[in-house]
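[Discussion] Sanity-checking designs against the backbone

I'm trying to build intuition for which residues belong where. Below is a structure token string of 381 positions. I'd appreciate it if someone posts a full sequence so I can compare it with mine line by line.
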């Protein structure tokens, strides 16, 4: 009886061990090398493979591909080939056998186009490259050095980092930060869970995040910056801009055209604005340095802070300033006032509000200023 039981246990042991040994398998590195010309293409498309892709830029007119971590009996799923001036690295083992810990190390010439896609790993390009770069991963970080060409990167679960980009850039992630240097073209940066930090953008900027801060140096075109949970800081914007946050401060160093700023929980500081301003906050102060034009009316409103506006001495504008007085503030109502370097044409004070009207240098487009239980200052620049 004991002998039979021992045979059964041995059989069970072998039955369990065989799948484990099969899953481990032998892993022999694979290497391929191809002579290429400048301006060629590298296409990496690995489906159902949790593979990291590391690309290094070198001076040779040659593409070297090395694959690590692929089990020998899965090599039939891997295809590395040269077609014309395009090197392909392809692998798709099907959903039933998802690979892990696979890594591709690839060296390419400095003038080459990259199109890299992986289902579950990081993408890294080391060294400056001239060409178009496309990167897509479902579960890792993407990191580039400088690129002379258009860039399009997308990650479903990691950070996206790039150096200076000479061209347009589209950078998107569903779960990380976006950091990029100077961009000579247009920049679109979108993340659902992190910060956006960019250098100088020579054309238009679109920066959107659902959970972080946005910062960018000077913008050569128009700018849109939107976040549901952080601060916004922009340098000088050559065109108009829209900045909106549900939980932070907004600061812009300059703009031409429409300046739109809205926050539900912070301060607004707009300097060097030439055009018109629409600034709204539900719980902070507003500072605006404005050179008004006849394009449109301006408005500044806060539900719980002070407003300070600076205008050139020769500005043509009509200002209507109002302080609404409410009982929920324990301070004396007489402490709130409208202070101005310009002479008021009309003014009045009551139990419920302080109001004044200024027709400056013959008047112009209306600037409406309103706060609740706060002070208003209208100053000459």
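Best answer:
Here's mine. Compare freely.
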């Amino acid at each position: 009886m004991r002998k039979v039981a021992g045979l059964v246990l041995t059989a069970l042991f072998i039955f369990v061990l065989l799948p484990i040994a099969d899953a481990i398998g032998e892993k022999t590195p694979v290497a391929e090398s191809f002579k290429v010309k400048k301006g060629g293409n590298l296409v990496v498309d690995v489906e159902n493979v949790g593979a990291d892709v590391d690309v290094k830029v070198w001076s040779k007119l040659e593409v070297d591909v090395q694959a690590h971590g692929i089990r020998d009996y899965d090599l039939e799923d891997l295809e590395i080939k040269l077609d014309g001036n395009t090197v392909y690295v392809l692998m798709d083992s099907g959903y039933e056998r998802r690979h892990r810990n696979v890594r591709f190390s690839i060296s390419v010439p400095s003038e080459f186009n990259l199109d890299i896609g992986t289902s579950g790993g990081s993408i890294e390009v080391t060294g400056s490259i001239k060409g178009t770069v496309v990167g897509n991963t479902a579960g890792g970080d993407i990191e580039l050095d400088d690129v002379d060409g258009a860039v399009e990167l997308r990650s479903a679960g990691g950070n996206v980092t790039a150096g200076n980009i000479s061209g347009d850039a589209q950078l998107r992630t569903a779960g990380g930060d976006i950091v990029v240097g100077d961009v000579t073209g247009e920049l679109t940066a979108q993340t659902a869970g992190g910060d956006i930090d960019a250098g100088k953008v020579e054309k238009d900027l679109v920066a959107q995040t659902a959970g972080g801060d946005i910062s960018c140096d000077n913008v050569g075109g128009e700018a849109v910056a939107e976040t549901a949970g952080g601060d916004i800081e922009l340098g000088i914007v050559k065109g108009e801009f829209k900045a909106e946050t549900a939980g932070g401060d907004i600061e812009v160093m300059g703009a031409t055209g429409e300046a739109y700023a809205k926050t539900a929980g912070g301060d607004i500081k707009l300097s060097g604005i030439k055009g018109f301003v629409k600034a709204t906050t539900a719980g902070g102060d507003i500072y605006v340095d404005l050179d008004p034009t006849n394009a449109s009316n301006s408005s500044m409103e806060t539900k719980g802070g002070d407003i300070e506006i600076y205008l050139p001495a020769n500005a043509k504008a009509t200002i209507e300033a109002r302080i609404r007085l409410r009982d929920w503030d324990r301070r004396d109502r007489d402490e709130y006032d409208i202070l101005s370097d310009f002479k008021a044409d009309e003014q009045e004070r009551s139990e419920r509000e302080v109001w004044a009207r200024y027709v400056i240098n013959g008047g112009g487009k209306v600037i409406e200023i309103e706060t609740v239980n706060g002070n208003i200052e209208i100053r000459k620049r």
